[in-house]
Structures are given as C-alpha cells and as structure tokens.
Amino acid sequence: MDSVQQATLLPPTAVPHPGEVVADYLEFQGWTQRDLARRTGLTPKTISEICNGKAPVTAPTALALEKVLQRPAHFWLNLQRQFEEAEARQLYLVRSAQWADWAHKFPLREMRKLRFLKPGQTEVDALLHFLGVSSPESWDAVWSASRVAYRQTRKFATSVEAISAWVRETELVAAELQTADFSDHLLRASIEELRRLTRIRASEVMEPIQKICSAAGVAVVWVPELHHCAISGCARMLSDRKALIALTLRYKTDDQMWFTFFHEVGHLLLHRKNRSFVLDNAADNLSDQVVDPEMQRYESEANQFAADTLIPPAALGEFVRKKSFTNEDIHDFAEEIRIGPGIVVGRLQHERLLARHQGNTLKQKLNWQLAEDDDQTWRQ
C-alpha cells in the first residue's frame, strides 16, 4: 500500500459538522427540520443541507440559531471553523503524502544533522516549515521569483534543492542579526578596517566582521555547505535596506575565506543593481567552465576587486620581482602591507609562484563545530 492510499484510509475526522449538533438540538426539542425552518426564517432546504453536513453555518444563520436554540452565534461559528480546519487538515494529509518524492530531493539527513530542520515533525512538514512555504508549488514560485544569479560550471554537480536549502538557512540566520540601513558609502569606508582583521586569529574574527558590516547594513553569516551545493558564498540584497553576505568555509583556510568575503563585498558594491542575488562556487578557472557568459564578467570583476583589496597590485609586483618566497620573506611582506601571511601564500599559489604544498604552515585552518546552543560556529 503506498503513502497516498494510507493517507486516504485515515479514520474520519472526530470534529463534527455543526449540522450534527443542530440535529441533536432538534431531537431534544422534539422539532422537525421544517419546525426549525419556520422559527429561523430559513428555507427547509437550507436546514436540510446544514443537518446533512452539505452546507456551512454562515454568520446570518448563526445569528438565527442563536435566537431559536439559545446558544450564542460564536458557538455555531466556532463549530463551523473547527470543522473546516479539520477538513482542510485531512485534505492536506492526502496531498502531502504525494509530496514525499519532492521532499526526498532535498538532503534531509544532512539538514537534520546540521539542525536546519525541527525535530518531531514528518519530513514533509519539517521541510515546508523550514522553507516557509505551504506546498512544493509555493516553493517553486518563491525560488523562481528570487532571481538567483549562479555561476554555474560544468565542473560541479549541483542540486537546486540543496542550493535553495542552503540559501534559506542563510536567510533565517541573517534575520536574527540587527543591521543599520544599507550604505554603499559606509561599506566602502569599512574595507580597510575589515582588511586589518586578516591579521588576527581567524577563529576570532566572526564577531568583529559582523559588527563592522552591520553598521553598513550588511548581515554576514556563516552556514555549512550542503552536498551538491558547490557554494563558497553569496551576496544579495534582502531588501532595499539590508544586504547579506553568506560564507561556507568551503576550502577551510583563512586565505580562501577572506578572498571569498571580499569577492562578495565586490558583488555588493559593483553589481547589486544588475544582479541583486549572486551565488558563488569559487572555481579557480573562469573560462570554459562558466555556463553563463555574462556571469563570467561579473565574477572576474569581483575576483579582481578581492585580489586588489587584499594585496595592492603595486606592492605585489615589487615583492614578486625579488623572487624570494621563503616563509620569512612572506611573513615580512605580509607585515609590511598589514595583512595575514596566509593570504599572501594563497595569492602566490594562485599565481603559481608557489606550489600548492608550499607555505601552507602560514595559513590558518578552519573547520565547523556544532555548538551545544544549536549555533554553528567555526574555529581553527
């Protein structure tokens, strides 16, 4: 027996139609339906349909019954409301049984492990509650209306369900953060202060980043990546007054985290009027892997913004000409330009001036830890 049949065979609702109560009153009074019709001024057909559960008790009917049967109108209207709610829930059970296949497209087990979903609910109910929608059709309408610009590449296998679940969690986390109204000017003015944070322990920068950015109207959140998501971060305007930057720690080192952060800042400052919602998957190669050619330009511009913000081009050029990239040289250069040394290592590796295994001791490693208070935190 499938789930649809099981839902259909559920016991009838225990909530009676108001007509059953009306019929009980008639029996008690020794009246016929026609007697009640005369006393209320309603037609015999109306009384018959109410008593047989085929017609609702409306407000005028409830007022008429109030006078004749000596029970207030709200009593009859409450009976009607309770019956309709129970009937709607019964119909929902039948419909929701058909949504199981849709729900299983989402990474439910992983979402439960990360506490995205509330316990004590069915899979479908928990998912709908989390997404803030009433049906799969509603979810599809909301997701389509969000106008997400996603740097899709052929390199990563992705799932729109996993992506939308991650996006929804970033919204819920951001909703808990109070921010000032978004200000392009204040965000630009905060860049140097944010850049200086690269020099402190990466596990301690979450709160300072959030504080600085919230003053410019940007909520910054960290949400673990889901499988088949292939996302390193996103930048979006939640409203005209609030922006969001969300990060995943996908590559688990401070250089990648900071580059992604400033990449998303670049999207907000450079592209928000054309692309108000951008998801990034941090592919190193932006050439033939990018499916959407227009996104290639936006991504290249955001990459350049992040690279130049973290390490000024002139300073990098002068350092590279020395052709000496020992850990001590890198540390001294990072001190000179007042930036974390791991970021310099990451840039030199990207430029292929260092091999991928060189200099990594100067990077800070990051990972997720699920705290007892249900918040996700990251640490070294």
TrEMBL record:
SMART domains: HTH_XRE. InterPro entries: Cro/C1-type_HTH, IrrE_HExxH, Lambda_DNA-bd_dom_sf, Rad_response_metalloprotease, Toxin_antidote_HigA. Residues 22-76 form the HTH cro/C1-type domain. Coiled coil: none annotated. GO terms for molecular function: DNA binding. Belongs to the short-chain fatty acyl-CoA assimilation regulator (ScfR) family. This is HigA family addiction module antidote protein. It comes from Methylocystis heyeri.
